[in-house]
Amino acid sequence: MPGSPMIGIGSALRQARESRSKTIDEAARDTKIRPEYLQALERESFDALIGDAHVRGFLRSYSQYLGLDPDKVLAAYSRSAGEQEASELPEPSPEADRPSSPLNVINRSRSWAMAGGVALILILLFAVFGLLSRSHTAPPPAALPQNPPSIVPTQAQVTVGLIAKHEVEATVIADGQQVFSGILRAQEARAFEGIREITVQIVRGGVVTLKVNGEDIGEPGDAGLPYSGTFYPPTPTASASIGGVP
Length: 246
Hints:
CATH class of the domain at 158-245: Mainly Beta
Mean pLDDT: 75
Largest sheet: 5 strands, antiparallel
Distance between the termini: 41 Å
Oligomer: single chain
CATH topology of the domain at 158-245: Lipoxygenase-1
Radius of gyration: 30 Å
Number of helices: 6
Strand order of the largest sheet: 3-2-5-8-9
Shape: flat
Structural class: alpha+beta
């Protein structure tokens, strides 16, 4: 958020790190987050990171590592993000404050006169219709349905974040469409979103940390063997399904 006032997250992270006598490089080695990303968090330069989902994942991991409450840190970030969006709303057009010209006043007077005439005609029609229909019995009110229509839930989403421990080739498929295929450099992080499912394929397991729907599932797979896992949105009654084929 360049140019925006500091919201206190960065200073809290920096003070917590310094109180633990940790350098940025030491914290990066322990959390497997690149040093420049940690510096961006402490400077609150969130725009330097890879999207909102990635910012939230890094904030949660870093605050947990420093012994801070990740829910409070994320709540402060969400409030700041909401205020930023509100401040970017367009200002009212100066046309609204411009005084009306005489021609506009005349046109408005004619419009009001026409509207008044139409309203008078409608009142007369309703009065005549009421007199004609008084002799007829009004139909009984329609019965209300016993069961109200169910509310259609919004589409669920699944989020997957990848942080490479070592350089490795990976492929990500979201809802049947390939969204990434290439090399993840050491300490490189990426985040993906899907509606129904996300499949992650890694040429060798044990070298990529996965975060699924905000939950850290570690570094799945066996060293030296290909790994493939498909992940789904969380449900109200069960955690997200996680499947892997070594």
